Amino acid sequence: MTTSSEVPKKAVALFYDGITAPKISAKGAGDIAEEIIALAKEHNIPIREEPDLVNLLARLKLGDEIPRELYIAVAEVIAFAYLIKGKFPTKRK
């Protein structure tokens, strides 16, 4: 996820294993944000611009699980990523 035309640009990357809450796997502003975005593009990881969400997530520490208050917003981002990749989450038993 990224912010749009803000200066400096911010980016937050999430890790989701499908079991636990998503975690912050990378974050940064300026050059670091650009590097995160470049790596995502290089590895065909979907990118979604959500400035308000990025600003909230950027306050968390690396490795932190997202708070319950952001579950719905982050679920929409994860659903977007699945859709772009043509994947669907596996059903839990």
Q: What are its keywords?
A:
single chain; about 90 residues; alpha+beta; name from scop; two-stranded antiparallel ribbon; 3 helices
Explain this structure:
With 93 residues, the chain is of the alpha+beta class. The protein has a single domain (10-85), classed as name from scop (3-Layer(aba) Sandwich), CATH 3.40.1690.10. The chain is built from 3 helices and 2 strands, in the order E-E-H-H-H. It has helices at residues 31-42, 51-57, 71-85, and strands spanning 10-15, 23-29. It has a two-stranded antiparallel ribbon with strand order 1-2. A hairpin with a 7-residue loop joins strand 1 (10-15) and strand 2 (23-29). The termini are far apart. The model has no long low-confidence stretch (mean pLDDT 87).
Task: Please render the helix and strand layout as text.
Elements: E1 10-15, E2 23-29, H1 31-42, H2 51-57, H3 71-85
Antiparallel strand pairs: 1-2
Concise account of the structure shown:
37% of the residues lie in helices and 14% in strands. The protein is α+β, with helices and mostly antiparallel strands and 93 residues long.
Q: What is the rounded distance between the termini?
A: 30 Å
Mean pLDDT over the full residue set: 87
Physical arrangement of strands within the biggest beta sheet: 1-2
Number of helical segments with 4 or more residues: 3
CATH class: Alpha Beta
Name the poorly predicted regions.
none
Number of domains: 1
Beta-strand segment tally: 2
* Helical amount: 25-40%
Strand residues, percent: 5-15%
CATH superfamily: secretion proteins EscU
Cα radius of gyration in angstroms: 13 Å
- Give me the CATH architecture, please: 3-Layer(aba) Sandwich
The major pleated sheet works out as: 2 strands, antiparallel
Structural class: alpha+beta
- Secondary-structure element series: EEHHH
